[in-house]
Amino acid sequence: MNFVSIRVITHDVARLVGFYEQVTAVSATWSTPEFAEIVTPACTLAIAGSRTVALFGSPDLIRPAANSTVITEFRVDDVDAEYERLAPLGCEFVQEPTTMPWGNRSLLFRDPDGNLVNFFTPVTAEAVRRQAR
After folding, report:
1. Single pTM value for the model
2. Could you say which of 4, 53, 79, 102 would form a disulfide bridge with 121 (CB–CB 3.0 to 4.6 Å)?
């Protein structure tokens, strides 16, 4: 089994896709006006409109912009450089670059729907070893 993607449901697909295109520097692939994907070598971030939820059988299944438990994480080469690149974009930073006890240097911010995003770089030998898997 391979974990291949995570999907974020939003009321404003274009706004959220534009945000993730800016912060990841990856252009989205659009399938429909209600569905786009940011494809990276390791995983795909799918972004879909709230109208797509009905395709799963229940329009009340998901509440866009209501997440308070999931952090979408991207491993980057240099968290501090990413912080400098993102600051002029007006990102809502939750935590500036900080080295965490598990050995990653982390930058935590919110997307336009309030979802948490973490950019991290392994900085200790143990963290680098874990990420090499």
Report:
1. 0.89
2. 79
